[in-house]
Amino acid sequence: MTRSPTLAELRRTVQKERYREIGNWLARRVARPSAIYGTWAAVRLGMSAHQVTILALLAGTAGCVAIGSGTRAGFAWGVLLLHLWYWLDHVDGQVARWWGTASLDGVFFDYLMHHAWNLLLGFALGYGLAARTSDPAWAVAGCAIALGWSILGLANDCRYKAFFQRLKREGATYRIDGGSGGRPQPPAPWPRRGRGVITWPAYKACEPHVVLIALTILAGLALFTPSLWEAAWRAMVRGMAVLAPTLAIARCARIVSRGAVGAEFEVWFQPWAEPGQRPIPVYDKVSD
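and the corresponding structure tokens:
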């Protein structure tokens, strides 16, 4: 691929099919469409996808450090840097698709960055208040948020690690039919009845894009209504310090008590019915 593509050439090559339909609102409407301009710049500079991911990691880390300072200016700059992190997190996948370098190593690096973000930001939200108020209890609350967000993210990773362990142990040949997450789908709507009426928005509140939108509102308060900003920040940390660990424990307990990992494995992986059949090639998943 050339280093001087036009925007039209990039859009034809690096944008995923249905990129405006699949995923959360912030990704569909803002990050993916605008990331094409970052991809244009990165390609012309000869940057690799890994280099863009490193920039994203640095931006996210700097944003968390700024929020952890506990100052109004630090909070506002920190949220701006977190938006840069989120945006670059969509640029790196597009760069990989342009250069044809998409790989499992890149996906691993991308997911590792997401887990680091959960830990850093969760702690920074509490530590910033501890620095501002000289009350260490807020740092403990930040640890609770970081732990809850991390477990929520790791629940899926641990499930797939369990899949792989069984595949290695049995040594059988399987075909993949696709389980509950087999095909990308548009965002699921808010359930109108049952427990999902409460749990759906609770889990959504812990998703990175929703957290980022909430922090953007807080940053606006920090700039224009400082007294309300600190009160809202405290309320967010108090609520999330309870919500995130509670949801993490509930999700893990539900998975284990219902045998959900084993059940999903049986849906995803089907033994080949006839000896000698060869499996269909499985292609690497490319993240945004």
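(Above: one complete record from the training split.) The beta strands are 174-176, 269-271.
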